[in-house]
Description:
The chain is of the alpha/beta class. It is built from eight helices and eight strands; from the N terminus they run E-H-E-H-E-H-E-E-H-H-H-E-E-H-E-H. The N and C termini lie far apart (42 Å).
Amino acid sequence: MKIGIIGAGFVGRAVAKVAVALGHQVMISNSRGPQTLFSHRYALRGVELGTAEKAASFGAIVVVATPMSAIYSLPAAALVGKIVIDANNYYPERDGRIAELDNGDTTTSELVARHLAGARIVKAFNNIPMVELEPDARPAGAPDRRALPITGDDVESKTIVKQLLEDYGFDVVDAGPLSEGWRFERGMPAYCVKMDAGTLKRTLAATERPTA
Length: 212
């Protein structure tokens, strides 16, 4: 599968490294252009370098691994019809205050979906520290296999992303539509905490949305 990655920080690099090891074709990009990613050609052997627009066009799946503050610079036209994995988290100290998120009026992935009208957004990869992505991977059926949650409004897209995460070595819990993504956003009980599938399901169900 071709996977485009927009964002060459810690998240983008970690996702790219595993994808290449699994045999996927990967193109990684950032906002400053491929000439600034020269060292990635050696650190991430097999990864192609490109602009955000090229990575968006390249990927059957496109991973958005940028800060929330950068989502409005994403190439929306190039992402129409694409499966887009949103790995964003909201950090006010980095992204500035976003009133809709502070008030609980929407979720991070719904904001991304609003900008990327026509893309098929699936929220994933946002609640596991990237230093744990490789060491926590386990084969299917392993008793200590970690589970990761996803949300999305398109069933087919979630099925494809679910398979990708399982290939990465994780069980997957479907937490519902994008509007339920708040259940594993930053600060929630399931955020960046290792859980098996049963524990994750129970934790997500019991999570209460904070009031503004």
